[in-house]
Write a structure and sequence with these properties.
The protein is mainly beta and 478 residues long. The protein has helices at residues 82-87, 218-225, 231-241, 251-258; strands at 18-19, 23-26, 34-41, 59-67, 70-78, 105-109, 112-116, 123-126, 132-136, 151-152, 159-163, 171-177, 183-190, 200-202, 206-211, 214-216, 267-269, 276-281, 290-293, 298-308, 311-319, 336-343, 348-355, 359-363, 375-380, 390-395, 400-405, 411-412, 416-419, 429-437, 442-449, 455-460, 471-475. It starts with 17 loop residues before the first strand and ends with a strand. Bound molecules: fe (ii) ion. InterPro entries: Carotenoid_Oase.
Amino acid sequence: MGNKFLEGNFAPVNREHTITGLSVTGHIPEYLDGRYLRNGPNPLSEVDPATYHWFMGDGMVHGVRLRDGRAEWYRNRWVRNPRLARELGERWEGGAAAGLGANTNVIGHAGKTLALIEGGATSFELTDELDTVGACDFDGTLPGGYTAHPKRDPETGELHAVSYFFGSGNKVQYSVIDAQGRARRTVDVEVTGSPMMHDFSLTEKHVVFYDLPVAFDSEQAVAASVPTALRTPARLVMSALVGKVKVPDPFGAKLRQRISGNAGLPYRWNPKYPARIGVMPREGGNGDVRWFDVEPCYVFHPMNAYDDGDTIVLDVVRHPKMFDTELLGPAEGPPTLDRWTVDLAAGKVVEERLDDQGQEFPRVDERLVGRPHRFGYSVSTKDGSASSGSLLKHDLWNRSVRSREFGDGAQVGEFVFVPSSVDAGEDEGVLMGFVYDPATQKSDLTILDAGTLETVGAVHLPDRVPNGFHGNWVGNQG
Ligand SMILES: [Fe+2]
């Protein structure tokens, strides 16, 4: 049985490279001093195409170091965890860890490089050169898993996040990690059940929760990860946990281990689950959250959000459904760019479509997280969240969109914006991301002028970078 998330440029690569002397076409701006890093699934061992879910592959981080107008190195490394280290024949000294190797995002914070994942699985600290140091729980201040989508407040440098884990029942956790890398505040927030809450939104005044109808499915979890003979009692145990019981460790840790290992995803579309967004003042608590109904849908990724008088503007990539009939990866109709305006006075959400072409991986200038943005960038996609051939630049003032194509069959990953200086204008700088060329079966780190979308330079890599998830520019200053 075929699985498109194992084919073409979704297929994993089987080598770790350390390459210096990279060839470059065009020009690498001198102000780029740092690393472009990107994470994604890359299963090490053979997986079963009938059950392999794209979100469940072992993590691999790809990185390119830029300095003084040159590309100093390219490295790709599996994110180790105890199981992966064992499979690679390595000693593991990185501490206890649950779930998959972190495969979803990679960030820099408080001088550390962190490979991130969600859903109760352990995130990992990496060295500057992408080797795994060990499990990350923010110096013990935030045990139990984090999220792949923290937001850095551009004012304070703090990381805000919402974490979920089915074993926490009907609670998700909002957290603030300070600029030194320790949690200074956590708030447990009650939701309907056990949703997959992949991301959230942050404004200058508010935290926004997306409590949408993709929820933990105990039968799916059991089918994917437990031998047939054990399924009935295991299903009972799982069902008892969902939405009701706080899982004590080490039992919870065992369950987390069970929901791992390149198998199916234990979350599915649940038509009975209400679609709501929750709005909490930043310094508020569970009792302060106001809930607003929206049309049933799923949102992996907001583009950005901001306060505007008595309203909150949420630009989101909206999927009409998720994991209903397609259970191996996101592919349930075209995800569109929508604007949800939360009217706090009237107590309702106005939903409008900004762009009806399929797209994913929305990003803005990180200096504007939680503030009004004019420009946003996304990747056009024809089949869900899979990468595709063009990059979109949205002008949300003029309500217009421009497209940059990359040639026949090119596969485009998420692009990130890097300003040319701290006080550069909103699209004064570059966009960078990986572009795969099927003719050469290799990828480039492609650098575009964010204003014009013209190519500035390209770093040619010795191998391909499989279609993956999220990346970031980790600058050496700031
Ligand atoms: Fe994501």
